[in-house]
Amino acid sequence: MKKQMITLATTAALTGAFATTVSAEEYNVNSGDTLWSISQQNNVSVSQLKSWNNLSSNLIFPNQSLTVSGQASASDNGSSNQASESNTYTVKSGDTIYSIGKKHGASVSQIKSWNNLSSNLIHPGDQLSVGGSTAVKSESSSNNTASEESNTTASSSASSEESSSQGDVVKQFTAEATAYTAYCAGCSGTTATGQDLRANPNQKVIAVDPNVIPLGSKVWVEGYGTAIAGDVGGAIKGNRIDVFMPSNSDALDFGRRNVTVKVLN
């Protein structure tokens, strides 16, 4: 990976009131890269990359130079930037709405409401608003008189939200997991159920043995998240799954591992 850092700094000498720093980091696209894999490497979202580079589609080319950080302008105390960063969260592989809400003191329903989500399905690279966490803390402070019983109820509610963030579990087992891409040898890029993975590289899809997990099932995979059982494979038999990754480097990083699999209702 080749990176170049360009930094420009200008100081207001007359007033001494503030300093402005403008920085931009560039990334040279390698063969096999996708916007999604680049966004994961640089902890930004796909939409930010497209905006910073004036891209109208997800199509990129080897040796293309991409800006992978926004231009930042901070006041002397930097408080506005800190507030902005604390109000958004970039989804990482393995995250669930429940785990994100727990980190920011919010419930599953609040996260869904703030982001207009109609389901619990999220994808790596998505940016979620978690700005309501301040309101949640305030509400908590104003209700200091809550009894021990209330605390117990809150605990039960959290467990219930974790379950609802994944859905009702129909079956749970340990499986051997590997990863594949839409460009592997002999791959057409279209799944057994008709999903075009090359056109939609951010989809969460796994290949399964239909005798173990019916095609079309919603499935939660440890370290991958919630996906659709939409594909099959010649070597995918019994308690084995193959998780789809948008790039070869992501598939290699995932490797081969034993994971918990939950088939959801």
From TrEMBL:
Alphabetized PROSITE patterns for the sequence: LYSM
Region span, Disordered: 128-167
Top-level taxon: Bacteria
Keywords recorded for this protein, A-Z: Signal
Signal peptide positions on this chain: 1-24
Compositionally biased residues, Low complexity: 138-165
The LysM domain, residue ranges: 25-68, 87-130
InterPro entries: 3D_dom, 3D_YorM, LysM, LysM_dom_sf, Resuscitation_pf_RpfB, RlpA-like_sf
Pfam family, one: LysM
PANTHER family per the UniProt record, alphabetical: CELL WALL-BINDING PROTEIN YOCH (PTHR39160)
Protein name: Peptidoglycan-binding protein
UniProt organism field: Salimicrobium humidisoli
